């Protein structure tokens, strides 16, 4: 069956009616095409009765779902976060008829926006849900892989999973340690030398056991002047041709 990638953006809601017993509304929304696969927004803890989410979700739907005469819809429920003990009360529901947006006649990746009335549990309409929808031409490899396992995914959930992978493979503090130029000592040189700097803060030039100590220029490959021993200087002067006075 031919399918399409439908992106739904739950932008915001306005004029939500607070439930009885809650002085402060912290709302979130749950959306689905199939009841077995639901996605949800984050909880807006500052907007109160006018929350803003701007969360985007991708649904894999058949082409007939988007037909102009189709009665299929994206269901949205809005809840108020009540804490860990009490259940979250339902503030209202929305049934978004995607066929009314005529997405099949629009260009791909071109969104359409709509404001839909929110039906309270009592059956009365109170408040508005601002939503956007569009058909996607293509998606990233991460989204395509997620859609093979579940027909509904959220961008925020995918970002959270990628961030957890990055934290899992993050370098250890010892490996991520950087050289502090103001400390006057290079940890890399210190590891090569097998010891720490002298007590007076200066760099060690030789070790008490007579071992060789690597200095900065030698370790970093910088040019360094080589001093000849007295015997080598005498041999070099004997081999040097006499100066005849000519320029």
From TrEMBL:
GO biological process per UniProt: defense response
InterPro entries in UniProt: C2_dom (IPR000008), C2_domain_sf (IPR035892), C2_SRC2/BAP (IPR044750)
One Pfam family here: C2
Highest taxon of source: Eukaryota
Location of region: Disordered: 174-209
Matching SMART domains: C2
Database matches in CDD domains: C2_SRC2_like
Domain C2: 1-111
Listed name of the protein: C2 domain-containing protein
